[in-house]
Write a structure and sequence with these properties.
single chain; about 325 residues; mainly alpha; about 0% strand; globular
């Protein structure tokens, strides 16, 4: 138990350290307002599509698994619940227009790969990878459709941009296109050449460091006041750390899905705010500082959340 908790804390420390490096790069002037758009383009236009291709064709393997459809249904239902709660809280709390989309996305979607993957492999070993990848596919698909849309609408809210075509354009992004092409091909049994999988792996590896550098720079640019625990940030933290994992626990119980796979899904559901949400907020001129602060607050919260979840699951006899 102690070894698993220690491994999870190391994963969180590594993520925080890379964000600190981004902060330092901002102070040194290596990252500035003039070149941060390049980071956004590299992450969204190059790194994320490559990561999708590498994941779908290189890491997804559910052959021999019992009820594989549950691996996608449970994350989908869980995120629909947190998305609905985010929408409800947004209506009740009425945050500023530029903050609404980020608030909803932070409630609904978790950091399934950047923190979730090392966290789960540290806790449960490589056997956790297929379940993390299943959660990631659902999480990424919903984020780059619904999440990207609501954040983009917040960014354009003050500009008064309207129209169905404009809304549809906001839904289309390189990661979503990669998912729309890769998943049907994988379902049809198409195999990618090893060279393509290797290349996409190398290119996808830029996402984690660049996204975390970007978050560190955003904190430098907007200041640590963005991490202030106001009512909006507090609600996001409660949804991510309490409502999301409890929802997944209830779903696992309902569908009699237990053991290590259930534990992986519960940890995934409780992961911090997605790093990509910060990048998307910046690309659409939404409240980037608020989202960056939320990502850092919830990442710090993992130090407390994960050990408590592990203890709870042990007491419930799930692991």
């Amino acid at each position: 138990m102690l070894e698993q908790v220690f491994s999870s804390l190391i994963a969180v420390i590594i993520v925080l350290a890379m964000s600190v490096i981004g902060y330092i790069l901002g102070r040194l002037g290596y990252i500035n307002k003039g070149n941060k758009k390049l980071l956004i383009k590299l992450i969204i236009g190059v790194g994320m599509p490559s990561l999708v291709v590498n994941t779908v064709f290189g890491k997804l393997d559910f052959s021999g698994l019992d009820r594989p459809w549950l691996l996608f249904l449970l994350p989908l239902l869980s995120m629909m619940v947190t998305l609905a709660i985010g929408l409800l809280l947004c209506r009740l709390l009425a945050p500023d227009a530029k903050r609404r989309g980020g608030f909803i996305a932070m409630c609904a979607f978790s950091n399934s790969v950047f923190i979730g993957l090392p966290m789960n492999t540290g806790l449960f070993g490589d056997e956790a990878v297929p379940y993390v990848m299943a959660f990631y596919v659902v999480n990424t698909t919903l984020f780059w459709t619904i999440g990207n849309f609501v954040i983009s609408k917040s960014g354009e809210s003050e500009k008064g941009e309207k129209g169905i075509l404009k809304s549809l354009k906001k839904l289309i992004s390189p990661p979503l296109i990669a998912l729309a092409v890769s998943i049907p091909l994988a379902v049809l049994g198409v195999k990618m050449p090893k060279a393509v999988i290797t290349l996409s792996g190398y290119m996808g590896n830029i996402v984690t460091p660049l996204a975390l550098f970007y978050i560190g720079y955003a904190l430098y640019e907007y200041g640590f006041k963005s991490m202030k625990l106001g009512k909006h940030m507090t609600c996001v933290t409660l949804v991510r750390f309490i409502i999301a994992p409890l929802t997944m626990i209830a779903l696992c119980r309902l569908f009699r899905f237990d053991g290590m796979p259930a534990a992986v899904f519960i940890i995934e559901a409780a992961m911090p705010v997605m790093t990509q949400a910060v990048v998307v907020a910046g690309s659409h001129d939404a409240d980037e500082a608020f989202v960056a602060g939320g990502m850092c607050v919830t990442t710090l919260g993992c130090f407390i959340e994960v050990p408590l979840l592990m203890l709870l699951m042990q007491l419930m006899g799930m692991i």
